[in-house]
Amino acid sequence: MLFNSFTFASFFIVVLGVFWSLPKPMRAGWLLVSSLVFYAAWIPQYVLLLLLMILVNYGLLLGVVRTAHARLYLAISLILSLGTLAYFKYADFLVSSSAHILDRLGVSVQPPGVLLPLGISFVTFMMMGLAIDAYRHRGIHARSFSEYALFVTFFPHLIAGPILRGSELIPQLRSGGYLDRGRAHRALWLITAGLSKKVVFADTLLAPYANAVFTSPGFAPAPDHLLAMYSFAFQIYFDFSGYTDIGRGCALLLGYELPMNFREPYLARDPSEFWRRWHMTLSQWLRDYLYVSLGGNRVHPARVYINLFLTMLLGGLWHGAGWNFLIWGGLHGLLLVAHRMVGGSRQDPERPLAVTDIVRIVLLFNVICVLWVFFRAPTFGEATTFLLQLVAGPWRSPWPIFQCAVIAVCVGLHWCERAIRENQTRLQAWTATGVPAAIESFAIGLAVGVVLLLGGFGGEFIYFQF
Question: Does the active-site annotation cover 414?
């Protein structure tokens, strides 16, 4: 049940109507049932797996909170969670990668062909984070099985995040939701913006061009490869941030606030700032539960570099079972290490941009785009072929004017997003006068009309495969 589908729109209208008609004590139960139905719409039998994971991890969480053997229960919880994730996500990759060596030893193996349950990476990290917080006596843990189950399965974030902490959602679930005119207004804009990002830009203007070049790297001229690289960079941003916008908007209409997951990442001025702007909840999770656990920056400088590299290497592996994801994560790790070694300062994402930042922004953006090639290409060989054509291919070929214009619009929209966020208070004061109501209605209606005109609501979100 895709967020960008008529099926989900119908489902959500029913969920929303029933939710606000129920007394507060009954709302959580309704949301839990609705979330399980939402998940069952993908692969019904995996609902049982999800419930089993929740039941086992909740029991272990109680052991962490209520017994003197908290470390043991935490260890069992982490081993089971990571073991489940490893089997479903990495079994095929590990068997395929070792098949050649095993064949030489006379051992014949076949990949198990496991179908990846949707959202298992996000669900696993949320359950692990809650258990670690309970062990560290931080945050808030669930006080009942139903509360724990709803925290994990709440459908606006279930499939592709954001990755939530107990303190971010559980208190809201206990309150039964809160909705006012301001939240409803924000929700409407978030859903409209998310659908526009996904359907108009990611699926219609960017994906076809990127797919055409990445499918056959090396055949098109160099300008096409450059524009395909930029197209994918904006495609994955609009696709994933569009999903988050729709999820946050739906949660707001139900009375719950989900954290921001993107903050104009391509306007970052250094590698560290990029990861505090891109997939922010994952970056924070890796920092708090992996990097800090490895020793963080409290150890010898050489160890700090190793910790940074390992964190990003494992972050790349989290995204997918393949060598390309390891390479992508490892290169980002080396980029962070290099930035730290040269004494680069950490930029505050909230610090206003200056004209002097433009060179750094453009340089880092192009480096990030090059690394995206390893993320997008199916194999390392195809990634290197793509990059070699980008460097050595013919540059005298005509530049596709339309795609150049699309990229320029994407860049402009990225700057507009930041300007809107930084001037949100001023815009709210302006809209409070009532004058722009007609303009807002026209803009929302136009956006929805374009989405419908493009033949429905587009395809799957990229991050569903992770």
Answer: no
